[in-house]
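Assemble and predict.
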Amino acid sequence: MSSTTNLFSPTKLGAHTLPNRIVMAPMTRLRAVDSIPNSVMATYYAQRASAGLIVTECTMVSPMSNGYMNCPGIYSPEQVEGWKQVTQAVHDRGGKIFLQLWHSGRVSHPSLLNGELPVAPSAVAGEGTLHSPIGKVTLETPRALETQEIPEIVEQFRQGAVNAVEAGFDGVELHGAFGYLIDQFLQDGSNQRTDKYGGSIENRARFLLEVVSGVTSVWGGEKVGIKLSPSNTFYGMKDSDSQGIFSYVIDKLNPFNLAYIHLMEPNEVDLANRQVLNPVLPIFRPIYQGTIITNGGYDRQAGNNVLSTGDADLVSFGKLFISNPDLPKRFQLEADLNTPNPKTFYGKGDQDLELGYIDYPFMEIQTE
Ligand SMILES: Cc1cc2nc3c(=O)[nH]c(=O)nc-3n(C[C@H](O)[C@H](O)[C@H](O)COP(=O)(O)O)c2cc1C
């Protein structure tokens, strides 16, 4: 990569050619009433189609993977139909869109799961609270999955990938980050199993690698990405040797020839919580031979800087894409940015779906 590589340098991402290196990071917005994607969501994603790549909000692969009210799924025919209008709208604007496949694991509550306990590698509760149909609740101790149940969940991810093909996506990203099920299997703070899915680093990586095998059997490696967060402490995530487990996993991902790995840097809360790997990129760049998307707190200048070092190949932006549907244009013109309003990040029931979602203004383009 030359030192002039910047956010506007076109690039190959697996099987796709992208006009820029600006990725819209996956963001849960909780506007999918009854878990079915709708026309307001189609408008939201289409508004942001000038990103080199859009990664959708995390999306349930099964009813038991639910962690939030009104997040979308990809396991029912109605959900697949709903997503078709989203992919069509993005493609009509010339964009590319990957679906983020997700299982929440222990980050859930019986009130979101028809009264059942959330499932996890081990009966170890995550830390913190979440919003549920009965209000704000503390995370409870989940039920440890039986060994024979685990292949069923791998199959749900594979089926989600099949459904994503039907829904018209350009690829899928596995949510392996932020303390959800895949991450729960990886890290020994949440995985205390004694079967082939727990104990050694090799065993704790097994679930992730089985899911990657399942999903790449549908899409081929070149249209699959995975998001990992070695330094993220959400929901009490921790490991006794973060560098060891993540180095192993990232090395094992090399032969899959994935479209990319999406690597999170720690945020201020992670840095305040405890000592974490920081920065993440220089530790894992030498281990991974493929494409890396970096994420976490970037602006235009920081994005251009990291691309010029060659440590990352693309940069994803989260909150700035919430408030700036035309973020690439604004970056290109070094224009002012709209400020995101955290109060409307998440939808509240089926009211005001559009507020703080599709009403952020585009730049006014001077024609004269
Ligand atoms: C409202 C909101 C929802 C998010 N939902 C998801 C999600 O569904 N999946 C995911 O991997 N990350 C999610 N994230 C994290 C972002 O993808 C990104 O990692 C984070 O915002 C840091 O990037 P930024 O500093 O550019 O915002 C979410 C972030 C925000 C602000």
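The longest strand covers residues 53-60.
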